Amino acid sequence: MNRILLEKLQLHFGHASFRPGQREIIERLLSGQNVLAILATGGGKSVTYQLPALLLPGITVVVSPLISLMIDQVQQLRTRRRIPAAYVNSSQDPAESREILRELGNGVYKLLYISPEKLQQPYIQSVLKRIGVSLVAIDEAHCISQWGHDFRTDYLRLPDAIKHLGNPPVLAVTATATEDVRKEISQLLQIAQENVMSQPLNRENIALDLVRVSDEGERREQVLQLMDELKGPGIVYCSTRNAVEVLVASYQLQGSKRVHGYHGGMESMERMLIQSQFLLGELDVIVATNAFGMGIDKPDIQYVIHYQLPSSMEAYAQEIGRIGRNGQPGYAVLFYVEDDWQIHQHMVEKEYPTQLQVMQFFQAFKTAASANKDAWGPTEMTEEMVQMLTFYAEQTGLDQEVAAASDSGAEHVQRIWQETEKRKRLKKQKLYEMLRYVEDVNDCLRKKLNRYFGEEQVAFTLHCCSCCGLDRQAYQGDRTNTTNKKDENSWDLRQALEKLLPKK
Amino acid sequence: MNNRSIAAQDFLCAVTINAMIPLANERTLQAAFYILRGRKANQTLQDVHLYHLYPYYRMFPRFSKEDWEKIVSTLLQEELIVQLPAVTPTSKPSFSITEKGIDQAEQWKSAFQLDRWNEPFTESGLAEKIELFWQRLHLLVQTVSQLLSGDLGFFPVVSDKKIQQWVKNQLASHTAREQWQKRLGEELHTLWSPLPEDVQKLLIGQLSGATQVGKTLGQLAAQQKESAFYLQLPFRYGLAMSILQLQEDPVRLPLLSHLVVQTEKWDTRLTESAARTYTLVQRGMSIEQIADARKIKKSTVEDHLAEIALRCPEWDCSAYLEPTLSALIIQTSEQLQTSRLRLIKDHLGEAVSYLQIRLALARRQGERWT
Ligand SMILES: [Zn+2]
């Protein structure tokens, strides 16, 4: 068995040996057990289900919430690893999905990436059941936990879907999970305690810095200076789109590095170009909202600056986890001003419905209007909010019939609202934990961060943290001017085209 | 404020006031904003036709309300335009251009070469075609470039599924793939060599492929120390010229001419929704019946009729508008020197409806440019 595993690893993935933990996870899956794997981002999680997929009969289903990630992975599997894979998600038109399902029925694929809501569809379940699913891998598994920072209602329906597929072995993968979240994942997916496997969470090569500043002006000045001094490539995370734009604009007035902003409000083509430029080293710094980074594999990121307080410890760990995946020493610094938490508080308030909105939701639900998006117009509810409310409505046993029989639905409204309030409190709790991390100044940051995730490791490579003492200069580069070279004087259209489209 | 943003502000003022001149005394201040942003509402589309503002339509699709307000307040402050209050309680306020404004507009027009960049925009619908054309071309070049380098593991720069499918279809067969790989570079050379050098650089600089990642227009602007708003003009010019050339002489560029072939199922002279209405009109249905069948408002159907009158000269609208009444409306419009519905209606009284005035004006406009 060992030999086969290694051969396949070499053949399809080009690695001569396994990374810590990978082999144990794969062996348990192959012996039919359910596994929860907590693997640091960049810790080689895809190998843990892609390799078993090659060895097992039938098909391996990978559940992922990120469409871009799916597309990217499937493309890589097909072209680089020569493994037949496909994906089904809501971005496809129905004809395309049908074609993939037809091929699936003919046993063309070894791996199918699918979004959680698609896996709920009875037709898809029946096709999968017919060809036989040997493994279900659930990416971003913390989304299943109501205690998690990124709970997704459609994840909670996964255990049912797995049952319909005939209870194949399950691999749940996540990068960050607290003790509570691990427990909940294990319980929902029936994973035995001894099959919870985690790579050490502690990132020895990342030094942690924390800077408290008195006001916005001071913060901006310090961050602008750091962007010039620190050795890149690096990412600066901001809480809002506006903060991204203001910071980029002020940097461009005098900074010398190649810097660009990135946020969800930009056109998708522009986002793609900026991302590719960063991956290829044509940009030194990306200033971004949390929209940037998911599924991006860039091993040489040297630093991450948090311009403002992140919304949770989980988000923070995930974002700084992108530093130094190549093993080189890296630097994470978090700036905060006393009232930073208010931005997040405000965002949480907007994310969850008021009691009035729940009432409006109930009325619309009752008239069966929930299928029609326009019906929500006057209530000013986002699509996400309607989805959330629909989910909790179902959870409290509400359906069209029950709703029609009840006049004002006061009781249901109350129960749904209580559920959403519970979620809201949880988010605030997460924010509070984050706040505690920055306010308690007398303790080692590494200890605090790791302890939050239930780990006692404190080893480090170069520096531990600003509390234990660190030398920022170690992370500074030579301030060479990297701005674009002068355009060549002579322009030749034919030459430019041949660079892009070389003659065959 | 640095020099670049002052120049950007000047440029936006230049474009705005030149777009505003034909609208003065007739439309609200906001009308020009909707045109520059490219709003798809009927009022806006009709304004574009009535006042021949084709080059300005969708010139800055991402123009923000704040940017706009800054420009308007500058124009007011510099006394290049003045606001006009509403004449009657039901009419809308408008504005006029001062003499100083007219002079300044002329000066700016030549400083920013507006006539030169606007020249190809003489027909409706070019603004929308430009966007589709660019997305298709961009993804096609990227894909062919990757094919040529033998590496297909790349992030497609265009995420729109329809565009991706279109490119996939183009490259579906082995022969087609061979042809595109062999001839795309050559055809692009033929297509773009007549363009000015700075336009060529703008187009190529934004393209991605195996050997380069495209720059955004904003990045190219920073390199050239220009404003991104300004570069939008030569960029659009380059694309418009490409489309016109491909439409005119598809035989010379057999591959690239695929990019401008119409594949939509509806009558492309119209918006999709108006085209649906037109099919029902041709079946002899009344406004009420159409509104009922399509579950849309009566006023929306009337908007569609005006659009059809404008763009489909073959439509016989006499069921709604007798030729003699039409002539009367046109005569009144010319006499009053206005296209404002309200003024014409006030003059003609209860005997005519707004729909009839709109149809008559649209017809007249349609005849002018067909
Ligand atoms: Zn420490």
Automatic annotation (TrEMBL), chain A:
The keyword Protein biosynthesis is assigned to this record: no
Gene3D superfamilies cross-referenced by the UniProt entry: P-loop containing nucleotide triphosphate hydrolases
Ranges where the Helicase C-terminal domain occurs: 222-367
Record-annotated Helicase ATP-binding domain positions: 26-195
Nucleotide-binding listed as a keyword: yes
Pfam families (alphabetical): DEAD, Helicase_C, RecQ_Zn_bind
Gene Ontology cellular component annotations, sorted alphabetically: bacterial nucleoid; cytoplasm; replisome
Biological process per Gene Ontology, one example term: DNA repair
InterPro entries reported for this sequence: DEAD/DEAH_box_helicase_dom, DNA_helicase_ATP-dep_RecQ, Helicase_ATP-bd, Helicase_C-like, P-loop_NTPase, RecQ_Zn-bd
Protein name: ATP-dependent DNA helicase RecQ
Source organism (scientific name): Brevibacillus centrosporus
